[in-house]
Amino acid sequence: MSNPSENTDLISKGFTRLSRGSFAEVYAKGNVAFKRFTRGTSETQRQEFNFLVNMHNAFQTTTSHFRVPTPIAFHMDERNHVTHDPSVNVKEDMDEISATSIAMERLHPIPEAVSGAILEMYFPEKKDNGPGIKLCKICLGQEPEPKPTKPDSKRRKFVITPSLDNFSLSANKYATLAEMFPGQLVPLHEVARSMGERLAQLHFIVKVVPNDVEFVMSRAQSGDPSKVGYYIIDFGLVKPWTLADGFKVLVDSFFERNLWYPRPVPDEVLYEAFKDGYKDSCPNPGYAAEFLQGIEDRQLIPTYDSEDEYTESPEEEETGGTAGEEEQEKKNLKNKRLHV
Length: 340
Prior knowledge:
Blueprint: E1 16-20, E2 24-29, E3 32-37, H1 42-58, E4 66-67, E5 71-77, E6 80-83, H2 91-97, E7 101-105, H3 112-122, E8 135-139, E9 148-152, E10 157-160, E11 166-170, H4 171-180, H5 188-204, E12 208-209, E13 214-219, E14 228-233, E15 239-240, H6 247-256, H7 269-281, H8 285-299, H9 314-319, H10 323-335
Parallel strand pairs: 4-14, 8-11
Antiparallel strand pairs: 1-2, 2-3, 3-7, 5-6, 5-7, 8-13, 9-10, 12-15, 13-14
Helix pairs in contact: 5-7, 6-8, 7-8
Organism: Candolleomyces aberdarensis
Protein name: DUF3669 domain-containing protein
């Protein structure tokens, strides 16, 4: 087998490169996507495929809107080829990739009408003469800051450019789109509930810590190009989990990438929908209660900017403050926008 980091001429063989990251690059051919690993061990790469298969199997019997791309095969070489979906023959294509790879269902760009609406609202200059939106990341926790993508040679700084490949939808942006396309996008509260359902299944059925997974929207695989589909992708950092590892690991992971899920503030509409979905899908009510209480408690832990650091006065240090002051402080913490 060739070195996986070498430059293979896949484009001339009919492949299209969709993306490239630190550990892999993704190519597509027809309706199949191929994740071609460029770094990592065979053990972790096979484990990622196994996680994908387990997730796909676990998600078959539930009503959540989110699903994972159908796994097709895992390929290392002639003697190490594992087929999950025998209805799709990809072995020859995976031989041409000449590196350890995973074949799975391809996610196609979101419907043209939805893409056009996003461009008109946020990139009007690109609506008629630029590429369309490929995927939308659904970020109900907080809107991510755009990353620097292009150097400005004059100032030697980076120009911040929002991505058209993976456009981030905050809760407000998604709600606006859902109102524009009521027959194609599900209501916002259903998205939040579905996230909760899937997270509980990942924790206690698939039994993983879902580090860095992403909730995205693309075109549905129904054959109708006007339909929207909801998917969970990116399993490279997913880790196995057992009860012996403790719930703190799950809570830490929730806040590690706090873009996707609604902030765990009781009585807020989106979080309550997420919470209901999590409880309904968790096989053990006690487990659900422990995790949800854990993220709610963590959300109340304040962090302070350096210029606004909290310090107690000598009197407060000695007396601890009055009961009324303590109660007011608790209310202030709950009402303040807190970050973890």
